[in-house]
Amino acid sequence: MFLISLCLTYPSQTYSGLFLVAINPYQHLPLYSEAIVQQYRGKRRDENPPHIFEVAERAWVNMGEERENQSILITGESGAGKTESTKKVIQYLAAIATDAHPPPPPTSPKPTHARSATLASSQILANMPRRGHTSSNSISTVSALTAKGRLGLLERQILQANPILEAFGNAQTQRNNNSSRFGKFVRIMFSPDGCIAGANIDWYLLEKSRVVYRNEAERSFHVFYQLLAGASDSLKDSLLLSGAVEDYEYLNKSRREVDGIDDREEWYALKDALDTVGFSQAEQSDLFRIVAAILHIGNIEITSTRADEAQMPDPSQAERVCHLLGIPIAEFTRAVLQPRTLAGREWVSQSRTQQQALDELSALCKTLYEKSFGSLVDRINKALDRPSSKAHFIGVLDIAGFEIFDINSYEQLLINYTNEKLQQFFNHHMFVLEQEEYMREGISWEYTNFGLDLKPTIDLIESTGQHIGILSCLDEECIMPKATDLTFTNKLAAMWAGPSEDDEDDDFFKAKEKFEPSRFHQGFVIQHYAAKVEYRTDGWLEKNKDPLNDNLTKVLAAAGEHYVATLFAEYADVPNPLGGANNLFTVGRKRAIKKGAFRTVAQRHKEQLSSLMGQLRATQPHFVRCIVPNTLKKPGRFDVPLILDQLRCNGVLEGIRIARKGYPNRLPFVDFRQRYEVLTPGILPRGYIDGREACRRIVNALDLDDAFYRIGTSKVFFKAGVLAELEERRDAELYDIFSRLQAALRMYSARRQMKKILNRAVAIRTIQRNARVYAELRDWPWWQLYTKVRPLLAATRNDEELRKREVELQLARERAEREKKEKEALEALRMSLEAEKRRVEDQLESERALAVDKDSLLDRSKRREAELEEEIATLQGDLELLDSQLDRALKLQKESDEKHESLRQAFDQAAEHLVRLEAEQKQWTAREDELGQQLSAADKEIELLRNDSEELQKVGEELKNLALQREEDIGRTKERADAALQEAEAKLKVEAHNRELWKDKYDTMEKDARHAKEQLAEMARTANEYSSMLTKKEEQIAGVERQVDGLTVKHEKALKEIVELQSDIDTLHAELAAERQDHAHEQALRTKLAGELDDLRARLAAKTDEETMRREAQQSKEAELADLRAQHIRLQEDLSESRRAALEAQGKMKAELENVNREHKNLVSSHKSLSDRAASAQETASKLQASVSDLEKNKRAIESELLSLRSKMNDAEGQIADAERIKEVRSIHSNATLVGC
Fold first, then answer.
1. Binding site per annotation, positions for ATP
2. MF terms per GO, please (predicted)?
3. Does residue 1080 fall inside a structural domain?
4. Residue whose C-alpha is closest to residue 1142's, from 819, 820, 841, 834
5. What mean pLDDT comes out for the span 460-479?
6. Is the domain of 237 the same as that of 313?
7. Are residues 587 and 573 in contact, defined by beta-carbon separation less than 8 angstroms?
8. What is the pTM of this model?
9. Does residue 1111 lie in a domain region?
10. Using CA atoms, how far apart are residues 83 and 74, in angstroms rounded to an integer?
11. Is the pLDDT of residue 782 over 90?
């Protein structure tokens, strides 16, 4: 079924358990555009078809959510698309990291290491190479992955590192036109905020032998052909390259051109990539210098003399090589043809044969290219490193997969050994850890060994114990003087295929089962996890030793070209002042032996592989398996046996098997309930319910088959595909919920709009009806008469209204007098508050002085304690001298008997003192209990105060802040009481400890009294002095405590007064705000009234003498109004002055409050060493309760004052309204008079 799924989805990608299976389509497909990037950005795995972008997205999301390093392992045969998949992963990560953090606009045209500089999509497209067969790559979509030109310099450098590595590390093979001939592990570092912070590249197993030899249908590395096809004439002249591909021995015996690859265009892309990464022209010249030198070395002609000695008839090519490498031609020729070797204690020259000299040159080319490639990768890593914080990384592993050829050599063993380790890593991650988690979660699961225990095969290859493995045996044979490939093969067969006495060793027996000797060739057969592979051992010793002439290495280490000398710096000689060739070689030999420079290929590969596996184990892996659909490189063709063989070799089939049998999907109880509870409404009751029980009810309500899920101790496990089905059901349910919600909202909106339309229609009909009525009445004579007579009906009541207004004005005057008296009372209150503030300031100054005195007393007491401790130490030294005085004490025995009675009395006094100390301890214990009771009472009172504060908050907003402050003070008081109690307990422990010390001392004195009465008497006197000192110290402490109590009481009184002042200030603020609003209203009314009075005054001036009395009345009213205005202005000024004074007082109170708080903190810190703090807490609580009652009284008084002020304002408003009505009456009366005239 899985194979059918691959056929149906081809050309595409599909999931298989933990794998993503990617098939090479051999054609361009629109699968990597910007739209596809956005399609997979931030989506779940089941929301989109399988894709390499989804694997990169999962790694990105897991790194951010789980804060864990990620790795993506891409394996497959040559031509399966591993390199392209690696590039797509890197490009996707660069795109989404740029989208997550858009760069700021560039402020300077100079490129920096930040993400400010960008390139257009066309530039990125031009820089990315198009290699290989036209159907094997899809790099044409690179421009779509540039995040619309927003990539910064670092992202572009990471992307442009690929063309460089492909030029120097990729080649054309029979299976792939752009095959990676090395493995690499690319680590992309991310900062904590998700930005790309750098990158690093590790490389493995470079096929350096391709430089000198390859199949006729294959090519060497791309850079050789690109250099010859695209380099400028000046560069070729500097590198002494004057011919074409067919002119160089290392290139003309194999394929020269490849369909679909333009070496000239690839050269330009390589140059652009080198410039982008940051290679200088000198560094680029050094890289191409090594490539050109290798081509020239291949053209060096070596012939043989009659004595079968090698010779170089034409040294022109050697001179070119030496010119490029910066080495002397004579030393180079001597090192190749007649190297010097150590024979005993003497150096002798050894002539080489023709074949030996050619082998030396081949080894030199391979070493040059390998070291230059390593230096290239190091330079790229240096360019991609950034001095910024790196939180986590995503690693991408691109390495050759498990392959079986007709002839499998040493390189193939290392590749298959690497894949064996990677498959073991996958098995451990997928099978072992998975089943161990089933056991931890308590799921009924029978542990299954899926036949993939690869440890025996790995032990067979790498074991170093009692039974050495293949690689260790090969290393051992490499150091034997007469070892050959045949002796190595026979030794291996005798060790692993022959009978052994240690077959009872189970591990060794399993490893032997994986080994078989070859029947027809010189070699052996290994049973790998995929299949049996037969290896030929021809040339293995030479390949493993990777020999290089010591004479050549020393010459190259001393090269005039700095780059070449750096490559061979490990072979550099220590300068010898004696000079001479003998000394040169002697020092070089000793240095080489001392440094241990000889390391085989197997040793280096095991070290690199161990480092790689360590990095992978520290990450969360994701697996991608690339598949070759056919060997013809044709799109649309599907070779079923070939694909099945690859699926078996990649471990995909076993992955499907474990995924179908196990439970690959799991969710914690909390996440499962939170996500899928919406599918089962009403199943879970309100309140708390156990997570396991909740998940069990939800799963039962979802009607899932018991075989599809398991409930562990902390997670719910599901078979493959179950969560996808639940997600679909959840999406459908959410769609239905939101659809119904939208329908309800639309219904409400439509009804509201319809109601507005209906109300608008009713209003229109009402307006129309009133308009019709007015049109009918407008021309009716009776209506016209009514409208003219109606204003005259109220003229007869004007005099009565005037008398009423006079009475109201009199009342307003009386109210103004009362307000003036109240204002004076407020002024007196302000003066008293200022006096009280000054008194508080004086008290605070006195408290500061007392605090200083208290600190000095504490310092003296500490010094006295230190002196007492020194005296105690002196006494302990005296006690140690008692042993030396024992003989003298025996002589004074008689005298001591006479004084024994006096000493006994002194001892009795000490015992009485001890009894007193025990009584004091009991008193302390009783006092501690009292403190606990007082604390409980204080807690109850605190709770009552909190309730009272809540009630006060409901009564008025003005006291809300004050009540909250009281609760905070109570909490701090409780904390101080707790701290004081803890300090009292600590002091009791100290006193008890001191009492035990005194008791021990008295016991010692009693024992020694029989032998040294004088010393015991002296100790008794010292003890009495200490007792008196302790008594004085306790008295001093008691005095300090009393002082602190007095300070605390004064401080609490000051806090209470400050709080009262604050409440008064808040009340005045509220009153001032209300007065301000009333004043604005009154000002508007006065302005309107003044305008109307001016109009009346103008009209009355034009009237006859009949209006004289009315004018006088008007003048009197105006005078009264002027008086009222003056009074109002004075009141307003008084209020403004009161407000300013209140604000100043508030500012001063805040400053004093801060000072008081600081002083209070100092007092608390010093008072922590005293024992009576709990009593002060109870007193403070009672005082706070009294202050709350006082606040309530003040509140009621303030409310009454506020009501009186509001009544006054209402009276003033009434007076103004009366004045307006009088004005209206007078205007009407004047109009009536004019009409009568």
1. 76-83
2. actin filament binding; ATP binding; microfilament motor activity
3. no
4. 834
5. 86
6. yes
7. yes
8. 0.55
9. no
10. 9
11. no
